[in-house]
Design brief:
The protein is an alpha/beta fold. It folds into three domains: 102 residues, Winged helix-like DNA-binding domain superfamily/Winged helix DNA-binding domain (Arc Repressor Mutant, subunit A), CATH 1.10.10.10; 128 residues, Nucleotidyltransferase, domain 5; 159 residues, ATPase, nucleotide binding domain (Nucleotidyltransferase, domain 5), CATH 3.30.420.40. The chain is built from 15 helices and 15 strands. The strands form four sheets. Strands 6-5-4-7-10 form a five-stranded mixed beta sheet, sandwiched between helices. Helix 3 packs across helix 4 and helix 4 packs across helix 15. The longest helix is centred in the C-terminal third of the chain and has 25 residues. It is globular, with a radius of gyration of 23 Å.
């Protein structure tokens, strides 16, 4: 590697990611030049000068600064138009690594990616979030180290880590806020705990938000308005509007699980209200319905296996759950007008039975204009949406123009 310099760490770096307390990046600085190279296409100094309008000497100086960080590397020579062929340069995603963790209620997926969010190594862990933050996060940190060793790299190569949690999160601090499925986690400093062990920026968000980011980046990058719905032990949504993730005032945007189902049964929800979508249509709710009929479905995985076996009662229960989800989503479609609704989570592995129930209601109850081009599809990331989104969260932060400028300053000061 050209450099082992770490990315900026600490409150100022994290504040910058959230748009607070950071100066505007200079248009002639290295960070701004780097944004033109992030697509990975090789460019010459002349190409960059032509696009930016900057003097070639300025562009040459900025390219040299980027080369020193290791984020950019020479890629060869462009075709000559006479004289010596000009050198080309491109983004080098392997320059740094990102750690990603998608922590669920009973299962966690961890991964190591490069700066293009390409998964280099990953592992799924059976972890109960109810065991508490110290036990769970220590297990994640241990697995992170094992994955780094598998890739032949070390913590010196890290740009940062992203973590998704199955509950509300104050994104600016990384603290869970009264998470109903996470006893002992309320207010815990996840970013601080992991940051002390790794020495890198730690970004934390709600698991459905990062799944929305992952699915959007990997499958629907050209779609500006997308709704990702996770159906598992709980039900939630990640909202992408105008290409940006919407978290809401307190980070509670997208909590579909506690919207009352129109015309639904008066089942008491764990939140204390009755008729919530989660109480009616989550994996836990469907499993409860089937257990009442004598089926042994103690987990969401057992539920999906029963459905895949061709069981008629399971198919009917899942389709009815889909209809309940559709009744809530129909209102969301009228309000948000997404182009795509992606259904993910372990219960979504039930496949077409669930999707059929959702589509049946959404397409009949939402406004025709809002559904004219609407697509309702299953997740396309094969269970990786969470880790891909956690990685994307970090990449967006550490490769932002202002952060790259700080990296250049740090690299120059230690050279």
């Amino acid at each position: 590697m050209a450099s082992r310099t770490s990315f900026p760490v600490g409150p100022r770096a994290l504040a910058a990611e959230n748009g607070r307390g950071d100066t505007e990046p200079r248009p002639n600085a290295a960070g701004a030049i780097f944004q033109l190279l992030r697509d990975g296409a090789p460019r010459t100094r002349a190409d960059l000068a032509a696009v930016t309008g900057l003097a070639r000497s300025t562009v040459a100086a900025r390219v040299d600064e980027l080369l020193a960080t290791g984020l950019v590397a020479p890629t060869g020579e462009a075709a000559s138009t006479g004289g010596r062929p000009p050198a080309t340069f491109a983004f080098r995603p392997e320059a740094r690594l990102v750690l990603a963790a998608d922590i669920g209620v009973s299962r966690t997926r961890v991964a190591v990616t490069d700066l293009a969010a390409t998964v280099l190594a990953e592992e799924a862990l059976d972890l109960a979030v109810a065991d508490g933050p110290v036990a769970v996060l220590n297990a994640v940190l241990t697995q992170f180290q094992a994955l780094l060793e598998r890739t032949g790299r070390s913590t010196a190569d890290l740009a940062g880590a992203g973590v998704g949690l199955p509950g509300p999160v104050e994104h600016s601090t990384g603290h869970p806020v009264s998470p109903p499925l996470m006893p002992g986690w309320d207010g815990f400093d996840v970013a601080g705990f992991m940051g002390r062990a790794l020495g890198t920026p730690i970004l934390v968000d709600n698991d459905v938000n990062i799944m929305a980011l992952g699915e959007h980046a990997a499958v629907w990058p050209t779609v500006d308005d997308l709704l990702f719905v996770k159906i598992a032990t709980g039900i939630g949504a990640g909202i992408i509007s105008h290409g940006e993730l919407q978290r809401g005032a307190q980070g509670a945007a997208g909590d579909l699980g506690h919207i009352a189902v129109p015309g639904g049964p008066d089942i008491t929800c764990r939140c204390g209200n009755v008729g919530c979508l989660e109480a009616v249509a989550s994996g836990r709710a469907v499993a409860s319905t089937l257990r009442a009929k004598g089926y042994d479905v103690s987990t969401n995985t057992a539920l999906v296996e029963l459905l895949r076996s061709g069981n008629t009662d399971a198919a009917l229960a899942i389709r009815e759950a889909g209809r309940s989800v559709g009744r809530v989503l129909a209102a969301c479609v009228n309000l948000l007008n997404p182009s795509v609704i992606v259904i993910g989570g372990i219960v979504a592995d039930a496949g077409e039975h669930l999707l059929a129930g959702i589509r049946e209601v959404v397409y009949t109850r939402s406004l025709p204009l809002a559904t004219q081009h609407l697509r309702i599809v299953g997740a396309g990331t094969a269970g990786r949406a969470g880790v891909l989104g956690a990685a994307a969260l970090v990449v967006q932060h550490v490769l932002a123009a202002g952060q790259v400028d700080q990296l250049v300053t740090t690299t120059t000061s230690v050279a």
